Amino acid sequence: MRQPSPSTFWRFIFATVSLFALFAFWSLVETTRQLGILVSSSKPWIGLFALMAAFTLMMLFLLVISFTKSGERLNATLEPILAGTQYQKLLGILFVAIGLSGFAWFTSNSYFIGILGNATGVRYLLVVVFCLTGMWGIKIIRPKTAWLTALLIALLGQSIIQLILFFFTQVTSYPFAMGWSETSRFYFPSLFLSEKVYGQKFPWPVLHPTLHLLLAPPYLFDAPLWFHRFWQVTLRFVLIGLIVPPLLKRLEIQSR
Questions:
Q1: Residue 65 to residue 58: CA distance in whole angstroms
Q2: Residue 7 above 80 pLDDT?
Q3: What is the largest CA-CA distance in the chain?
Q4: By CB atoms within 10 Å of each CB, which of 100, 108, 162, 234 scores lowest?
Q5: Rounded CA gap, 116 and 69, in Å?
Q6: Is the pLDDT confidence value at 80 over 60?
Q7: 132: which residues sit within 8 A by CB, 6+ positions away?
């Protein structure tokens, strides 16, 4: 993969974070309006807005100086900072752990959900911040890793964790449908084993037959409802994972 120059990469990072910070600031304004909060009379909200303003101005300042000679000196100092020490791997592992789990932990907090659950801009900014934290951790552990590669690894890792948390929370024994037309994912697969399930033979499904055939194995035994949902979720990850090896071979990508 062609890597951008350090100056280009950091300009992109500063610009992106600045945009998300402005979006988060606007989301906070909308949240206070919807909740009927008078910011001037609330010290926590004043502090939060002051923190957001300071963070946004800092990112904009770094973006501006990245086009100057001072910015070039800043880029030159980033790599030496990552020089290995006896605590390098431990610090890097800590950063990676925070980068991968921080967003899920932060946004699952009941206080955050109750107050900032609808502040979309804040959620986007948190994703970016925790991805950058994971990127730094990867770069500390393996300094030779390119900045963009480290960022993509952190972003993909966080995305996988979010998908796992989202889909596997649906693995329950809740007796009613958990989504639009979920029952069709149970009924159509059962038609492949209709004699075993219903005691008489029915025609195979004509709607998405390959998908429903893949969902049929739990009917081979008396699987509980939660296992049907577990099987559906597992297939999502297994099938996507199986795409990777042939895709790497087809695109002739040698590096993992």
A1: 11
A2: yes
A3: 79
A4: 108
A5: 40
A6: no
A7: 13, 17, 99, 151, 154
**Of 92-96, 134-138, 250-254, minimum mean pLDDT range:** 250-254
d(CA 218, CA 220): 5
Instruction: Count Cβ atoms below 10 Å from residue 176 Cβ, excluding itself.
Output: 6
Q: How many residues in the chain? A: 256
Alpha carbon distance 201, 178 (integer Å): 28
Give me 127's structure tokens: 């994703």
Separation CA 56–CA 74 (nearest Å): 19
pLDDT of residue 34: 87
- Residue at 236: amino acid letter: R
Query: Which ranges of the chain does DSSP label H, i.e. alpha helix?
Result: 6-35, 43-65, 69-81, 88-107, 110-116, 120-141, 147-168, 184-190, 194-198, 209-214, 225-250
- Distance, CA of 189 to CA of 78 (rounded, Å): 55
Q: What's the pTM value of the predicted model, to 2 decimals?
A: 0.80
The CA-atom distances, in angstroms, between 57 and each of 6, 64, 71, 123, 218 are 22, 10, 16, 19, 56
Neighbours of 210 (CB within 10 A): 7
Q: Does the pLDDT at position 215 exceed 90?
A: yes
What's the DSSP call for residue 179? S
Question: Alpha-carbon distance 187 to 192, whole Å?
Answer: 10
Euclidean distance between CA atoms 34 and 29, whole angstroms: 9
- On average, the pLDDT of the chain sits at 88
